[in-house]
Amino acid sequence: MSDTRMALEGVRVLDFTQMMLGPLCTQTLADLGADVLKIERPGKGEWMRSMPMIGQFVGDDSAAFHSFNRNKRSVTVDLKNSDGIALLMEMAKDCDVVVENFRSGVMDRLGLGYEDFKAANPKIIYASGSGWGSTSYMAKQGMPGQDLLIQAMSGVMFNTGRAEDPPTACGTPIADFAASQALTIGILGALVARDRHGVGQKVETNLYSATLNLMAQENFAVLNQSITLQRSEAGVASCWNDAPYGAHPTSDGWVAIAMCPLTKLGPLLSDEGLAGMDPWNQRDAVKLRIDENTKKMTTEEIMTIFNEADVWSAPIRTSAEAMQELVDLNSPRLVEMDHPKAGRIKAIANPITLSETPVTLRHVPPAVGQHTDKVLTEIFGADRVAELRAEGVI
């Protein structure tokens, strides 16, 4: 436990989130110092705990759970018990933020909606992340708000890959990540507004809107320039960019080249003819011609040439290679934790750096209900906690 002053120290969060959108948001708040109370089902906890990633668990929980739940305290409350709902409303009086990412309407039906919490604490900040947005026709039709489906509906999949490929999903759930960060920013803004203007409020975002915003430049072009985005047949990596922009084979691997003038690239590849080609209207031909040149050299050889000439380029690595480098360097981009069941585990560190209120590791991802008695004793006292446990509320 660190005594370091933290940016969100003193902010208490009731966390009803699950999966990725919500848990990554609340982990960011926790990393910044907020006291995040993860509300879970007695006995079972968040269902993401029991969803094996690549068919495996780490210390009885999934890798996904470990990735998005550090620095939190787990409190179990039965949400189907009316006394449990009443308990949470009492807890809200001592909290600053509520975060949830259930399907639209679920929290209201449970008696845990914004108006319910606002009645208990008028200055509460209630943050809600959903798949489509609570007022959209998609939500009203009951469409599941899941990352792959968002990529499908937003245009991401039709803008990724080669022209002859089927619609291609990104290699990581970008919709969840984009929405989680948008929700975090909204909460931080609402905390500032509360402190300056004395008002609580509801903060909302959704996977669909956040993903559309990720493609702001492409969508601007579609809206204002009367164009249809076209994927490259040869593998230029973006509908938006001309060549070179993408992956090129070497004799022993791959390199990525980004936005290098052909008048510069041609001589480096001993191919003067490249300089006379049109990087947009001939982008597929340019891509294939660059490929023919790069595959004559090893990755190391071509990176030496490109680095000396200040070409925007990089070797294309596997996740295993990228992670091994971090381990070898003892990099601060990783955080290590001693987990009671999984032993010593490593995770990606929070990317935020603050000079005066640094991010610290205070809690490993919690066991189900690990902090129930401690948290509720802090708020209500030991006698009340004993009564709640005897009544099956917690």
Characterization of this structure:
With 394 residues, the chain is of the alpha/beta class. It has two domains: 12-214 and 331-390, Rossmann fold (3-Layer(aba) Sandwich), CATH 3.40.50; 245-316, formyl-coa transferase, domain 3 (2-Layer Sandwich). It is 38% helix and 14% strand. It has helices at 21-31, 63-67, 82-92, 106-110, 114-120, 137-140, 147-154, 174-197, 207-214, 216-224, 262-268, 283-294, 299-308, 319-328, 372-380, 382-390, and strands spanning 12-15, 35-40, 72-76, 97-100, 125-130, 201-206, 245-249, 254-258, 313-315, 334-339, 343-348. The strands form three sheets. Strands 3-2-1-4-5-6 form a six-stranded parallel sheet, with helices on both faces. Strand 10 and strand 11 (343-348) form a beta hairpin. Helix 1 (21-31) packs across helix 8, helix 7 crosses helix 9 (207-214) and helix 15 packs across helix 16 (382-390). The longest helix is centred in the middle third of the chain and has 24 residues, at 174-197.
In short:
This protein has 16 helices and 11 strands. The chain has helices at residues 21-31, 63-67, 82-92, 106-110, 114-120, 137-140, 147-154, 174-197, 207-214, 216-224, 262-268, 283-294, 299-308, 319-328, 372-380, 382-390; strands at 12-15, 35-40, 72-76, 97-100, 125-130, 201-206, 245-249, 254-258, 313-315, 334-339, 343-348. It has a 6-stranded parallel beta sheet with strand order 3-2-1-4-5-6, sandwiched between helices. A 3-stranded antiparallel beta sheet has the order 7-8-9, with helices on one face.
